[in-house]
Specification:
There is one protein chain. With 416 residues, this protein is of the alpha/beta class. It is 43% helix and 20% strand. It folds into 2 domains: 199 residues, Rossmann fold, CATH 3.40.50; 165 residues, 3-Layer(aba) Sandwich (Rossmann fold), CATH 3.40.50. It contains 14 helices and 17 strands. Helix 5 links the parallel strand 5 and strand 6.
Amino acid sequence: MKKRTVFSITFFIAIALLFGVSGPANAESIDKIKIGLMFGLTGPASPIGPVQMKGAKMAIKEINDAGGVNFKGKKIPVVAIVKDDETKGDVAVRRFKELRDEDKVHAMVGSTFAGISKALNTQMRRLPMAYVSACVAPMDMFEKGKLAPTTFGIHGTAYSIGYSGAAYIATQLKLKKVFFLAPAYSFGRDQFKGAKDAFKKYGVEVQYDEAPVKTTDYTPYIQKIAEAKPDICMMAQWGTGAIAVLKQSYELGLNKKTKIWFNWMTNVFGSGVPAEALEGVYSLMSWYWNLEGFADPEVVKAGKEFVDKYEAAYGDPPDPYAGMAYVGTKELIRGIEQAQSTDPKAIAKAIMAKPQFPSMKGPGTWRIDHQPVFKYGAFVVKGKGAAERKSKWDLVEVIGAYTGDDYLPSLASEGY
């Protein structure tokens, strides 16, 4: 019996080694951290995807230039594996599976369109991977039971954009009649949910319309807005649609008939239209590269340091989406280093165990729903005309900021 027992134990140990029962230990014996980077480099998201990629790559280069990730008692490099989701959900899922199964990445940063972040979150629920969504994601993605335990959204939800913009219009501009033009998908509709809640709170009348995502001619929508004679029009378009609607609003003279509030501005959108089309347009920005004169010197300093590094690498000042992809990538790698593991659930647990992190928007803190609260949730800006600009990228003036967390969907509304 003793010989048979010894033989059995030896046999099962050999089988275990052969078929990888000791896999987790072996999986941690790695010589590099592989991070998948997937953005909309082509398609409707293509104005923004490439700048996100630059921010993410810059974060990885910084970490490697400092020696790499502290992992299991040694420094190891981070390697970026790049994919283009083509701004198509089915392509994004296919590319994700390539990253997971063929490239064997340990974690991922990506998405430029809201619907794609939601599709990827669904994949993370089935086969977990540590994932940071670098775009504004759909509201329902963050609901308890729908959010993958390993998904984080560095840019939160579009509800926040709509709510904070509407609150500023109601309380600071004190306007009472608003027209809201959205793209016909979650990014626009979630913005309207937030705006509607804020307008209801402050007693503001709002009229709503939406245009298909691939709309190129906004003439009938702009004419409808002009006929409604609102005090201000909120526009929620994104990607190529954002540039088109801003250009056409100027060309059709809408800016002479009503004030325009473009909900979520970026350097890419602002530089993609004539200066005259941006002049006087109110907007929110996640962050802006030139905060000179802003009342918080620490945030000004942090922003300037990031801008200097980015300009040294790429020549131009960073878009806010480059900035948030940078922060999101840093956070993902911080989680791996804190966890001392590439296991996705261990990474998520490590991030939430120490949820505070630095950013050019001031300190950030992850909520239980994996959305961050920043010291400054967004910056209120106003477009500059050609005569006011000192350079190609001197697009807007920062006139305020939205602080606190009341603009985020409540945790109770998400089921927490």
